[in-house]
Structure formats: structure tokens, C-alpha cells
Protein 1
Amino acid sequence: MGDRKKIEIEYYDKKAEEWLDKEKIKKKETADFEGFNPLLLDSFRFCYQWLKENCKNKVVLDYGCGNGIHSVPLAKMGAKKVFGIDLSEKSLEIAREKIKKEGLEGKVEFQKMDCEKMEFPANFFDIIFDGGTFSSLDLESAIPELVRVLKPNGSLIGIETFGHNPFTNLKRKINKMIGKRTGWAAGHIFKMRDLDKARQYFNKIEIYFFHLISWIAFPFLNLPGGKLLLKFFEFIDKILLKIPFSRKYAFKIVFIFSNPKGRRDDLFLTSSEDSVND
């Protein structure tokens, strides 16, 4: 395993330990490693609505699952089976504890696994959800692997930080200096060129942009009035993001990649019926 991956593992293992120690955080089961519920944000609510409408009775991968914050909702949305993978064992320990508390052991399975070299057979998943893992990866390796394990009629939905806003890029550099981001992640934020790369692998690509200015409210979400401030800025976002030029500078991007190129059901040994045991 390369030094890059070891650094990422050490970083997220440490974040997991810090998360466990933060007794002041309420409802930790619904909080990410930054301490707030992502469903406060329009971007994540959009993702969850799409997943709720599409994942029923489907085999779903929570790609780079971290502490399992998205895995539990996916199971409750009616997914047939949810697999979560991550290289941070300490994060997976938190995720497994959540599943036990929710009584979902038979519905959700966590594995320590490299997202760039997955151990799943080809043609395995109906839906893959990326909750912000791409910046930790080498997409030249990751995207072909995602295509390999995705069924020909499957979809990859993801939410990523977008890397074109000079103000959020400055914030990212500061976060790197104070240890809140790894050097690799700070230097590999998702950009337009990565969308172009995805177009080489998928026939259908849908893009949605969020948080042009509402990211300003993120540090205040756990403070009195923080949620109201966020709602106000998100309202302004909806107006500003109607202007095509502004979209490149959104803080978050949601993408839905479907219909992988060069894929047919008869090309793979694993059939949809045999992918997961009932």
C-alpha cells in the first residue's frame, strides 16, 4: 500500500477517535466527522430523495462509507442489501456499532477494502453512492473499478466538493495547513476535468450544483440561528445558480452517472439473480 493511502487511513482513523471523544455532540449517530447532520444541507437532501425513490430492493454500495452515516438510511429506505467499504478500520468499528444499535446486521455489511481495487465481482451493484470520497482517491484507478462492479443498468450517484471557487479553495488550503485535510485530498478536489473523465465511461450524466454562497453558514450550523442562516443562503443559491456561469463556482456538486459504456448483461459471469443471496 502506497504512502498516500497510509496517510489517508491514519487521518481518518484519527478523525474516528476524535469523533468518539466528542461527548458534547448530540445525536452522534446522525452526525458526520465534522459534527453536524448532512441532511441539513439541500445537496444531501437531494441525494437522499433520489436514493429513496430508486434504491428499494436494490443492492447498494456505500462507497468510502466512513462511520456509516449513510449506510443506515440506505437500509431503512428499503435497499435489499447495503455494503459499506472503507480503509479506516476505526471508522468501520463505529459503523458496525451503529448497525448493531439499529438491528440491521442482516441488511448492512461493512468491509475493510480499497476503493481503487475492490474485491467484489463484476456486475454486482444496482446503485453506488459516493458521499464525498473521490478527493481521497486516484480517479484514474477508481472510475474503471466503479464501472466494473456496477450493473449495466446501474447508477452511480455522488456528492463531492467542487474545486473552482477561489474562496472555498483558500479555505481548503487553510484546512490543510491546520491538519483538517490531507495534502492529497486538498489537491484532488473534484473539478470539471473529472466530469469530462466520467463521460468516457458513462452514456448518461446528470449534474446538479449547490451551495454557491450557503457554505458560509456551515461553521455556524450547531449554533443558535445557524440553521435559519443556512436556509436564507440556500434560498439565494437557488436564484443565483440559475445563471449558468455561476454553477462552476458551487461548493458542492451532485452527479448521477448511469448506463456504463460498453456494458452488456451477457458480458459478465455474475447475474443479477446471483449477486446477493435473499
Protein 2
Amino acid sequence: MKWEEGQDSGNVEDRRGLGMPMAAGGGVIGLLVMAVAFYFTGDIRQAKFIADKVGPIVNKAVPQRPAENSAVERNDRTLEFSKKIMGYTDKAWTEVFEIHGKRYQKPTMVLFTDKVDSEGCGVAPSAVGPFYCPASRKVFVDPSFFDELETKLKGSKADFSKAYVIAHEVGHHVQNLLGYNTMVDQFRKREGENSGIRLELQADYLAGVCWNRVERERSIIEPGDVESAITTAKAIGDDRLQKSAKGWVNPESFNHGTSAQRLKWFTEGLKTGDAEKSALDRFFNPNVRPLDL
């Protein structure tokens, strides 16, 4: 992936190496509860609600202090890559929104280590993986996730695979701006955990749409890049994750979609680049079950 020539985003915060006092009342147990809840619900807001009930986690700005001998200002590949990728997504979605007569409000990406105050969705541990907090309109990523993606989940940590994951989280921001985040709440009463599949597959699709637009303008995708993203899409399907973790699969507990579904919608977005409302509304057709998307 030829990402180096893109324009930097000014909306990347580097909080790696920052120490953070333990949230009052929650402690390690609270963070673990939140990680487990996020795994089963796929919704950082629901995960925080559950964790608050079991072991309260303070949901207010928690000051983060520089750890001893840590460099807050960095100039490394991870930071530069993050700035470029967010720059690509900023430009792509700004253009798409303008085409449809809307103004795109850019999200912020936060790089962190171990745990982070999401400024609206609670204190989250790295174990929840990359996530988006609608309240703060920020995407949170602990870069160590990409090592685990390759070693534990059998995905890929190639650059375009990372770009797919980041664009997926930015896709959740796009959903937030367009109102799909609240729309899924209407389905949750009827569909339970499966309702989250609608948002996740749409975010995969939006990630594909984003890189379709970038590629048409700059030709940054190289041979093997799409395959790396496909490897990752397959690795993070609910069926694959449950089979690996438990040895069995329970479709009724799925909240992100199967490997086949995630692969299908990412590649569909990458192929078509269709961001019309009719294309996005497909994911919220009440006559189609989430598992049938």
C-alpha cells in the first residue's frame, strides 16, 4: 500500500505511554467486565452500562499522566501511518458528503496503550479492540491490536489490513452522523444481540466505499493489499472467533456478522463505491434478518 504520499490528518492524538489512574470503584475487575461485555455485545455503550452495574467505572474525564521516561511527542511509523490513513478517510468522506449536500464533521483518532478514557463511553481496556465512541466522536486504537490480529486471530497486519480496520471504525462515525446509530436501537428490542450485525456490516461496507474513492483518485492499493484485508475480514467474523474461543458457534449471539458476511460487504463497498442512501438503507431492511444480510 502506497500510503506515504497522502495528506496528514490534524485529528490524531497520541496518548501512548501515558499513565492513567485506575478508575474509582471499577479497578481491574471493572475493566475486565467491560472487555467481556464488549466482546458479547459489540457495542461500547452497552459494554459500559454492564460494567457500571457490576463494578462502576467513572464516566468522566480521567486525567492521564505521562508515565516515567515516556515520550509523549513521537515521530514514528505508527503515528505517521495513522495520520495518513485518517487523512485519506477525511478527504474521501468530505467529498462524499459534499456530493450529497452535507457537511462532514471529521472524527479524531486516539492512539493509546493498555486502557483509555473514551470521554463519553467509559474507561476501556485494550482488550475491547479498536472502537468508536459516538459521544466523543473519536476512534480509539491500541496499535498492539494489530500484532494480536496476526498472531492470535490469524488475520493480517499488513498496511491495507490496518487501513481497513481504521476505515471500519471511521464508518461507525459516518453512521453516527447519518443517524444509523440510533436506528439500530429500533431493531434491538426485536432482534436482540443480532441487531448489532446491521451496524457492523454497514461499517464494513463503508470502509470499502471509502477506499474505493481513495483508490480512484490516487491508486495506492498494490497487489496483495486487498487479499490482506480479506484475510482480516475473514478472521474477525463472529463464527470464526467463537469457533476459535469456544469450539462451537451460536448464531443467536452474533453481533458483528459471519466471516462470509464481513467479506461480502467490505468487497461490495470496495467494488462499487456506492454511498447512495438506498445502498446504505439495505442494512436496515426490516424484512431481512441480520444473519441473512
Protein 3
Amino acid sequence: MKLRFSTVALALLTQAALLSAPPALAQNAEAQAASAATQKEPSKVHQALAWSQDRLAQLDANITALEKDASRLRDEARTKADAALADLRKQRDAYRRRAQDAAVNAKDWSDAQIAEARQALDNDWATFQAARDKYLEESKASTATQRAVLEAELNAQQKALAGLRADAAKLAADQRAAIEGRIAALNADVEETKARVSKASAEVWETTKKSYGEAQRLFSETYASIRQSIDEAKK
């Protein structure tokens, strides 16, 4: 009888242990998932927002170049230029606020929300560029002024690449070499674009601007790809 009782007791204890195991395992799984999410957050946010900060530097460079150009204007032309510049500053400030809001809150956002924020920033960027081009056209800006605006953007891009190089330098040697090669190649592309812009005459300026636009698109895509590679290598 005692043997039977001990057997039953052992069976009950074993069953209790089995029943208690799943919650413990679930808690452990939740902890691991939370830890993994925490580790991924900086990378996800960095990939989504790093380029928006570098673009902000380009917006500032644009406005600085246009302010210099506006100083040559007088009377009604100056009044119109000042109004256009005020509008560009508002657009730049709106872009900054959106980027800052994303930087603060993106760690709590879903991938869909981050994608939406990035699209909104892209739209703000396109709106600014359209307004800038309108200003250049209406103010009858010289080729030299237009060249100065594009060169200011290209200089800002090279500063962004310097930031990429600094981040890549922190990686292990076996990861760093390929990424540094891509950065060097992209910087060479920027230098080539700068050379075309600086040498373009008034006669071929429109063609130069079109090729510049394509170069900008390729730069953005390649920059984002390199940034993603750096962030993934840090994991």
C-alpha cells in the first residue's frame, strides 16, 4: 500500500513539474525575444534615419548658397527672393522637426510606421528641391549660382561619406575592407559629378542638371545600402 502511495505521489509530482514547465519556458522565450528586439532597435532606427540627418545638412547647404545669391538682388527682385527663401527655411525646418520626431520615437514604431516616416521625409525633400528650382528659375540665377548650389550639396554628401568611413573603421578588419571599398567608390562618383558640374558651360547646363539628378538618385540608394551593411556588420 505504501509502495502504491509513493508511486501515485511521484506521478503527481512529475505531472506538476511538467505543467509548470511551459510558463517558465514561455517567460524565457519572451525575455529572449525582448532582448533580441532591444538589440535590433538601434540598427533599425539608424538605417531608417541616418540619411535624413545627412539630407538635412544638404538643405542647410542649399539655403546658405541661395542666401549668398540673394544678396546681389535689389528692390522688387530682392523682396521676391527673400519671400522665397523664407518659404525654403520653413520647409527645411519642417523637415528637421519630422526627422527629430522620428529619431525620438522610431524605437517604438512598427516597420510600417518607420516606412511611412521615411516616405514623408522623402516627400518633404522633393518639395524643397522643387521650390529651390523654382527660385533659381524665377530669380534668373546665373549658371555660376546654380553650380554653387549643386556643389554645396555634393560637399555635404562627402561629409556624409566621412561619417560612413568613421563608422566602418569600427568594424572588424574582415568586415571593414569591402565596405570601405564601396565608400571609396561612391566618393569617387561624387568627385566625378563635381568635376562635371564645375566644367559645365551654360550651353550644356540643362543636360548637366539631368545627369546630376540621376547621380543623386544613385547616391541615395548606394548610401542607404552601405549604411545597412555597416549596421548589419555590427550585430
Protein 4
Amino acid sequence: MSIVRNITLLLCVVWSANSLANSAYESLQFGKYKQQIISDLKKACHPQKKTSDEVWANKILSNEDNKTYIRDARIALERNNEKNYWDAISKVECPEM
């Protein structure tokens, strides 16, 4: 009985450690995608004022259509689909700043 319980406990620990490692990696990957999208949007939109990336992103995301295009761009990045990525980026409506 003790061996079965120990094996079960070990499997639970290994599984949860693997889940934590995956979520940390996914978080880093999401941050990378976010930075790339913001950088490319700034190149496309040419903001007049210096603003933080957070303010810039929130301004763009205040438009419902832009949310869809940015989601499409992120999915295209995840799938390494450069054509769809640039198609989505080109559809984003640049905010007035």
C-alpha cells in the first residue's frame, strides 16, 4: 500500500512540476509575441508622441475590430504564418495620439 501511495504522490508532483514549467514557457512566449506585435504596429502607425507600450496597446485595443486583428496576428505568429501575420497587422486601425 505504501509503494502505491508513494508512486501516486510522485506522479502528482512530476505532473504539477511539468505544468508549471509549461505555463512559465507559455508566459514567456506570449510576452515575446506581444512585444513583436507592438513593435510592428508602432512601425506601421508611426505614433507622434512617445508613449509607453502599455498605453499604446490599450489605445489600440479600445477598438473592437483591432482586438480581432491582433488576435489573428498572434495566432499567425504561433503558427509561423508570416503572410497572415502581416495581413492582420495591416488591418489594425492606428489610433490618433
